[in-house]
Amino acid sequence: MKFKTWDDQKRSILSGYRRKLKKNPTQGERNLVALFMEFDIGAIFQKGWLINGSTFYISDFYLPFCKTVIEVDGQSHINGKQKTIDLKKDKYYAMRGLKILRLNIGQSRGKEN
C-alpha cells in the first residue's frame, strides 16, 4: 500500500492496531459493550486519538454525548510503564475538556480470571 503522507501511514497503523484490540477485548471490555448495547448507550469502542501528527492514544470507550473517556484497566495499569502512559493520556484528555473514568478490574488482555 502506498501512502500519500507520513500522517496517512500513521492513520493506517492506528486503524490496524484498533482493529486488533477490537478483536481481542478483555472480559471487562466485553461486559461494558454488552451493557452499552442493552441500554442503547451511544459509546464508541476503541476510539483513536491522533496527537500532533506524531503520537496517538486509543481509549477503550468514548461517550460523545457527555464527552467522557472510559478506560478499563487491568493488572498492567497498576504501576510501571503503562501507569506513566496512562497519566499522559489522562492529561491529554483533560486538556481537551474530556472527563476520564478509569475502571480497575484487575484483568489483563486475553486472559480470563
The Cα radius of gyration reads 15 Å
Main sheet record = 4 strands, mixed
Which structural class is indicated by helix and strand composition?
alpha+beta
Any low-confidence stretches, pLDDT <50, length ≥5? 107-113
User: Strand fraction band?
Assistant: 25-35%
Please state the second-level CATH architecture: 3-Layer(aba) Sandwich
CATH top-level class: Alpha Beta
Order of helices and strands: HHEEEHE
Distance between the termini: 40 Å
Please estimate the helix content: 25-40%
| Total domains | 1
Give the CATH topology.
Endonuclease, Chain A
Helix tally equals 3
Instruction: Tell me the total number of β-strands.
Output: 4
Shape: globular
Strand arrangement, largest sheet? 1-2-3-4
CATH superfamily: VSR Endonuclease
State the gist of this model.
With 113 residues, the protein is α+β, with helices and mostly antiparallel strands. The chain is built from 3 helices and 4 strands. The protein has one domain: 3-Layer(aba) Sandwich (Endonuclease, Chain A), CATH 3.40.960.10.
Structure description:
The chain has 113 residues and is of the alpha+beta class. The chain contains 3 helices and 4 strands. It has a 4-stranded mixed β-sheet, sandwiched between helices. It has a single domain (6-104), classed as VSR Endonuclease (Endonuclease, Chain A). The termini are far apart. Strand 2 and strand 3 form a beta hairpin.
